[in-house]
Amino acid sequence: MYAEYLCAHGFRVHEAATTDGALALIDNCDLVITGLLVPGSIDGVELIARIRVKHSTVPIIVVTACVLRTVQNAARTAGCDELLTKPCFPEHLLESVWRLLDTPPERRQLPVRARK
Predict the structure, then answer these.
(1) Which pLDDT belongs to residue 43?
(2) In the chain, where are the structural domains located?
(3) What is the pLDDT of residue 112?
């Protein structure tokens, strides 16, 4: 759902089913959105830490249903820039993406409507 929403606002989105897949795609990304409880050989916190080692300036947003403060703090310590808890409206995620990418208001694209 979030990927479709971001695409409708003009973003090119690369999706990965696992943390391993995400690590393989990171070199082509300007921003990362991840969860904390995602499949793969490492968890979301370790994914964030590994991204930070190679890409210290790439913004990282976590969208999670995990409400455990220890896990959320671990994600922040690992280097996430923003942590949004579910339920998270797509509009809130979009605003975070625009802000972290430093997108000026005049460049913020309205949803692309399907042509008939």
Answers:
(1) 95
(2) 2-101
(3) 64
Handedness of CA 12, 87, 52, 40 (dihedral sign): negative
* Contact yes or no for 70/84 (Cβ under 8 A): no
pLDDT of 114 > 60? The answer is no
CA atoms of 9 and 41, how far apart (whole Å): 32
pTM of the complete model:
0.90
Helices vs strands, H then E, count in the chain = 5, 3
In whole angstroms, what is the distance from residue 59 CA to residue 26 CA?
11
Q: Which residue has the tokens 């399907």?
A: 114
- How many CB atoms sit inside 10 A of residue 92's CB? 13
Model confidence at 103, in pLDDT bands (50, 70, 90)? confident
Query: Taking CA 56 as the corner, what is the angle to CA 23 and CA 30, rounded to the nearest 5 degrees?
Result: 60
Domain 2-101 part of CATH 3.40.50.2000 = no
